[in-house]
Amino acid sequence: MSSETDGELESQARKAQEATPGGISEPGGPRHERWRRRGREFTAPIRERMQQSRTWYEGRPAWAKAIVVLGVIALAAVVPFILNATLGVGAGYWEAIAVKVGIAALLALGLNVVVGFAGLLDLGYVAFFAIGAYTYAIASGAARFGINTFANPTQHFEIPVWHMYMWLFFFLALAVAVGSGILLGAPTLRLRGDYLAIVTLGFGEIVRITANNLDSVTNGAKGINEIPAPAIGFPGVHYQFQGSFQSNPYYWLLLGVIVVWIFLLRRVNAGRVGRAWAAIREDEVAAAAMGVPTVRMKLGAFAMGAAVASFGGVIYAMWVGFISPDSFTLFGSEFSSVIILAMVVLGGMGGFAGPIVGAALVVFLPERFRSLGDSRYLVFGLVLVLVMILRPQGLIPSKRRARELTGGELHEQTLYEVREEASS
Amino acid sequence: MTPILETQGVTKFFGGLRALNNVDLRIEEGQVFSLIGPNGAGKTTFFNMVTGIYPPTAGSVRFRGVELLDKVRVPYFPLVKRSRRPFQITRLGIGRTFQNIRLFPNMTALENVMVGVDAHNKAGVGRAMLKTPYQKTEELVTERRAAELLQFVGIGRYVNELSKNLAYGDQRRLEIARALGTRPALLLLDEPAAGMNPSEKASLMRLIQRVRDEGITIFLIEHDMKVIMGISDHIVVLDFGEKIADGTAEQVRANPRVIEAYLGRGAADESGHAMHADRDGGESDGDP
Lengths: 424, 288
Fold this sequence. Notes:
- The complex is a heterodimer.
- By secondary structure, chain A is mainly alpha-helical.
- Chain A has helices at residues 2-19, 31-59, 62-77, 79-87, 91-117, 126-139, 142-145, 162-165, 169-188, 193-213, 215-218, 248-270, 272-282, 284-289, 294-320, 337-347, 353-368, 375-390, 399-406, 410-423; strands at residues 231-234, 237-240.
- In chain A, α5 packs antiparallel against α17.
- By secondary structure, chain B is of the alpha/beta class.
- Chain B has 2 domains: 1-93 and 186-288, 3-Layer(aba) Sandwich (Rossmann fold), CATH 3.40.50; 103-183, no CATH class.
- Chain B is globular, with a radius of gyration of 20 Å.
- The model of chain B is unreliable at 272-288 (pLDDT under 50).
């Protein structure tokens, strides 16, 4: 009996040796580990390059950094011209895609505050986007009066004065979204992890279903049509924004809004509130014992995220001119909760470049491969899985998040140390 | 003079289990006060109740004459009252460390301490967005204070090291620095010497004494008798949730109930021998 099992064991050992040349001690590990390593080796040059540019950037003086940042913004600002120059007549389509990227980037930045900074899983984030869009649509009077201001632009020799004041609806939408964020957060942010995710998921659905059924205010499932666009009407400067057939002004508007939000969020994240968010993410009990008002700080993250999303919603409503509950689903619509979350996770949590890159890829790639038909979503899913295996921290993670999600192993850690040495 | 912490009749049930029964304590300002007892005696439960992690079933906890268990008003909601949250108790002046280290592992040592120092900071989202002079000064002061505290506990050279990369003993020190950042009047240390070697323990004792010399009252849970007997001004012994002894090191050591609790009934009869065993081999104390 025993000799038989011994023989079996021996043959198994022999097989193992054959499988891994160089003997059992060879660091082959399980198959998935080997694949992971191969993948990492394949992408090593890219990562090295990224790391180099990051190190280079961090070593520059403040004024040089400012120039780099301004350069990036300028580059983003001329994208419509590049599209025009290269695509000619067909540029309009891609200009619209650029606006979608902008809206997605704004939403991803907002969700990143909740998920990336404070570490709360929010599966109903699209609700705040919807609240922003509906607030603008209802306040601008489209729902009730069906005002159509841009269908025939030649009709309007003068811009209606109140179209100028529509910019104030940004702040109205912000107030409503922040208010509803606090309303949702105050009772639920005592929950943690999975429970919070379920509650936020429910909130997203509640907002959508309310919009669907509150006919008298939101026009129900028919949606709100012909939402008027704002105008700029200073002496000497007159401009009436048009709908989605003139996308570029919205693109620049979005760019401005994103730049301002990044500027503000960076400041918040660098200070006391940002530290509190990081502490809550790492260990909530310890954070509370160190005097961090955990519920209030989590509410703050929720409210900030809601504020950013409401801006996205307002611009979306202005641009598309039509919103219905179907635009704001958990999954399936262009900007659904799950897709926004995928942008943040894919791009990398906790930073600012990550969510923007994630948003750009998630919006751009399906458009680029539209020829594949619906199977492109299959590819999209596959890419997501691969990224999560090879780079769980996302494409461009913040330094701290990278440490958390790789457990301090492999290259991120070593590069971190190298950078520390270089700086000291 | 009002004691810095005074508890009366503190009782805690977990379901049908009585974790604490009628515990009365009185900690005077400037003391090193120790709470000892075998595993499961209810020491950490007691800490958790003082710091507001959960409320006692019955009893009162007074910090500098203020009843901690009273309900307080909720800001912005004038009609609502509720019991104090842990962060509010911390801000009143009770700092603590944890038995199993609970640092923020992916933050640097400096950031860890800054979170503690933030406890009394005011600048929120608005002032951070505008970067007002107040906020800038506050950030600067916070950073400087955190660096000072790291220096004070003797790990000043690790400011920018991630806390998870620090050696075990240094992590314990970092926890103390973080708790000191909250400007406590009373510092609760939950087994600070656990897992340390004798020389580390000795330097930890010196650190605790230095903290005490800064005017901070120390409330200590510890298993290690050498640490306890060396620095405590006052000792209380818990066993199965009951206070069985209360007094100076000498008094407690001579108390037959203490010896019985730690070493068993037989040992109590020959208390003279037990005392020697106690003094020589502190290691056996913790786990009867």
